[in-house]
Amino acid sequence: MNKMFSKSWFEDLDSNLRKMGLDSDDKSFDEIKEILSCPPHLSPEDFASSVSYVILAGGFSQKTAKKIHKILMEKMPENPSTDDLLKIFNNKNKINAIVKIWNNRKVFCDGFYKCLSLDDKLNYLQKLPHIGKITANHLARNLGENVVKYDIWIQRLGVVYAGKPELSKKIDNGKLDKDIKKVCDDMFEHLHQETSLPIGYIDVVLWKSLQNHLIEV
Q1: Residues 6+ apart with CB under 8 A from 41
Q2: Contact at 8 Å (CB) between 206 and 14?
Q3: 177 exposure class (CB count in 10 Å sphere: 0-12, 13-18, 19+)
Q4: What's the DSSP call for residue 129?
Q5: DSSP structural state of residue 143
Q6: Cα–Cα distance, 202 to 189 (Å, whole number)
Q7: Coil, helix or strand at residue 190
Q8: What is d(CA 58, CA 137) in angstroms, rounded to the nearest whole number?
Q9: pLDDT tens per residue, the chain (217 residues)?
Q10: What is the rounded CA–CA span in Å between residue 80 and residue 85?
Q11: Coil, helix or strand for 133?
């Protein structure tokens, strides 16, 4: 078995996910890599779709989120009522957020692309309906920004990388602790140096590997 956090270890994870047909988030691994290399300027509709996917993905499997997302996005141009959408996905808070995003898609999209710095973009995304600090990073990565989503899986792996099990008590999927962020950032910088890949791409491979138990923490 390859040593954890080495180039060969990471490449084996990437290869195994592809062989298992698990090489995707809302897009395929290759599409994610391309987007991170050359971020697109999305239309308001595509922007709203990306935001909606991240809203749905929180607390659900990727397979479930993608299925519901596809059905909802097919319905949105028809201007369905909230009640109609609730028949598809019975979560009032998330549906209300998705409807608000869709109805104001041009304003929200234009606002994002007016932001010049990464910090400004992340702060802007955090203010969108049903998007928090951690999900803002997930959304930003899906929009082409080279950032990571510090979800609970990645936080746990960062603690393993640091070799500091005492930090486990600071893991929090709602509020990112500064010490946890530091060990995660150190891990991503190390793997970036090992592989020369964007940290956003490294993030999605690690995240999928953790979810599917190719990495046990």
Answers
A1: 113
A2: no
A3: middle
A4: T
A5: T
A6: 10
A7: helix
A8: 13
A9: 358 999 999 999 999 999 999 999 888 999 999 999 999 999 999 999 999 999 998 877 788 899 999 999 999 998 888 999 999 999 999 999 999 999 999 999 999 999 999 999 999 999 999 999 889 999 999 999 999 999 999 999 999 999 999 999 999 988 899 999 999 999 999 999 999 999 999 999 999 999 999 999 9
A10: 7
A11: helix
Contact call for residues 99 and 82 (beta carbons, < 8 A): yes
94: helix, coil or strand? helix
- pTM for this structure? 0.88
CA distances in angstroms from 12 to 17, 23, 27, 205, listed in the order given: 9, 13, 20, 10
Q: Using CA atoms, how far apart are residues 129 and 162, in angstroms rounded to an integer? A: 34
Spatial CA neighbour of 164 closest among 148, 150, 190, 182: 182
DSSP secondary structure, 1-33, as one string: -PPTTSHHHHHHHHHHHHHTT--BSSSBHHHHH
The answer to whether 11 and 204 have CB atoms below 8 angstroms apart is: no
